[in-house]
Every structure is written in structure tokens, then in C-alpha cells.
């Protein structure tokens, strides 16, 4: 096993962008192989696209990488990665697909399904790791409690888990109080082994988890491909059959609870010329934009109720003048859509939550409005639509800062043992 220092140029760039490097990012040794484990790859979600993008980024850096999935994905495995992806099942087990039908994130059996898929992928990945003693298993999706137990059970394997939300949060009563205290002890035992690290995409999740995880939780920002050639707005609107001459505000992503469409629509309605409200994404909860439009009596809208293929995403972003990220006031997580706005160079109108406000204060690539206040949304969107091109330099800066070329170095540093 050879050793090398973390690339000085990469480290300098990260410091310049305000990303504090923990010791694990400063020097590291080269592992024989990285095994990306994506149990829920066959569901239409961010897990599989993130896995594919990270595989390519690691290969570009000369890092050997393979992926384990529960079954085949909703989209074909890219030809350049076919030999590096191993499913536990080439076809889903009988009846398994029913778990994903309808509003699959709210299914009662969703938690049990996640546990079962994580266990199956874990043993497949562990078998592969036995042939590569220095391998690291990076879980992108799946049950984090299974990964915690695996860190205690498999004494020679190292694990990384991509954490997108806070663990053990919210109120607990009765027997749940005792259970939560035991789970906290279990989590602490796992990280003390030094073989389990957690990666968060934003500092708010990271800060909330630090009391439990200490130095074993790290910020690794959401990453994007900044090399893609983007279509023009005219080309995108022609391809999608959208009107060429009016303003368009895009609401992109799965339509889940916590998104406040009504405030945004009421704000748009008070503008001199209400823009086209373009909703693109699968409805996976009772927060249906069609109902919000009906409740507000909004006259100018279109709903595309489907999981949009990645190759079509760029056209929806390019067709829009701005992207709306309307959330309720208690929203504390990050947003992949926000970084996608930077990827496709489109300014954002976002709720003034801690994460969005901090991001837009740093990169100046959009505007915020007061949560739940339609007049504030109208004022913010009016200012942005009057000069959307003025946000382009900040969008280009954010696009580069979150490129895979930079973020892959952070992942490599995280995979390797601190010296």
C-alpha cells in the first residue's frame, strides 16, 4: 500500500472556497478498491445517478471502483460502467416491485424494504471486499443502522455512509426514549472503531450530528458535471413545446411534503404578468401541485407528473428563467435542485431557510423570500426576473466549486486512513 499527500493544489482550492479540511482530508493512503453500495438504485431517486457520477469521477482520478446494487436500475447501466456494476439480483424478486408502486416513500413497508436491500447488498459487497483487503464500502442510500451494525461486525472493513438527513431527531416519548438512548450508544460504539465515516452535503446536518459522531462526520458538498454543453433557452422551449415569449418559473423535483407551492403561486399571481408555473417531477405525496393550482385559481401553469430522464432535465432548466425552491420555514436540509440550478446556470428564488440563505449569501446566485409570505415571494421574483442574466457570474462560480473534479478529491481523502 503506497502513501501520498493530499494534492496541494486541490487543498488550496478547497480552502479558498471556505471548505474546512479535517485531518482526514490532508494526507491519505491509496486503497486497492472503492466499493460503492447503492441498495435502492432501482428506485427513481438521486441515489443511482449520484453513484454513477461518483464512479466516473473516481475513475477519472485513477481510483479503482466497483458498485453493488440490489437489482437492475430504472435506467440502463451506462456502457462504460457495465463491467463495474454487480447486482445482487438481475431481476427483482417476485412481488418486490409492489413496494415501490404509488407513493413509495410513504409505504408502510418502506423501512423493512430498505433494511432487506441493505443487508443483501452488504453481504455481496463484503464478499467482494474479502478479495481486496484494503477496500472501502461506501453506502449511497439504504439503512444506516445496518451499516452501523456492519462496522461492529466486520472487524476488517471500512465504511462510509452518505447521510442526507439528521439521525435520531425529533421528539421521543415512552419506550422510544429508552430505545433512542440505546441507539445513540450503538452509534458511538461504531464510530469509535475508526472504521465508519459519515459524509453530509451541508453543514447544518453535519453540525447537528457532530455531538454524536465527532470527527467522523464530514462535509462533502453535492457535486455536478460542469463540462456539459447546455442548450439555449430558445432550443429548449422549442423541444418542450413551451411558449417562446413569456417568463417561466420552474418547480423541479419530486412533489413531497414540506414544499409550499401556495405561497409561491399567490406571489406569482400578484405580478403584473403572472409567469408560467412549470411543475416537473413525480407526485409522491398528497402535496399535489395540481391541487395547489386549483386552490389558488392560478391561470398559467403546466404539470409534468413523471420522473424526468437525466438527458431531458437540462432542457427544462434551460427553458426556465428562474427556479423556485419554496419550502416551509422549518426546512433545514440541503437541496440537490439548488446545486442543479448552478449546473444549468439558472438563478433561484428560495425560501429564506438557514441552508438556502447561507448558500446564496456565499454565491449570490439567486434571491430569498420570507417563509409563507406571498408578497415577499412576489417582490423577490420580480427583482430576479427583471435581470436574471445578472446572476450568471455567481452561478458559474458555484458551478465550478461543486464540480466533480473538485469534490472527488474530498471523497478520496475521506476513503483513506488518516496518517
Helix-strand pattern, N to C? Answer: EHEEHEEHEHEHEHEHEHEHEHEHEHEHHH
Number of strands: 15
Helix percent reads 40-55%
The percentage of residues in β strands lies in: 15-25%
Low-confidence stretches: 1-31
CATH class of the largest domain: Alpha Beta
Task: Give the CATH architecture of the largest domain.
Answer: 3-Layer(aba) Sandwich
The CATH homologous superfamily name of the largest domain equals Glycogen Phosphorylase B
How would you sum up this structure, described in words?
The structure is a single chain. With 419 residues, the protein is an alpha/beta fold. The strands form three sheets. It has a seven-stranded parallel beta sheet with strand order 5-4-3-6-7-8-9, sandwiched between helices. β6, α4 and β7 form a beta-alpha-beta unit. α2 crosses α15 and α8 crosses α13. The radius of gyration is 22 Å and the shape is globular. The relative contact order is 0.13.
List keywords for this structure.
2 domains; 15 helices; Rossmann fold; alpha/beta; 419 residues; six-stranded parallel β-sheet; disordered N terminus
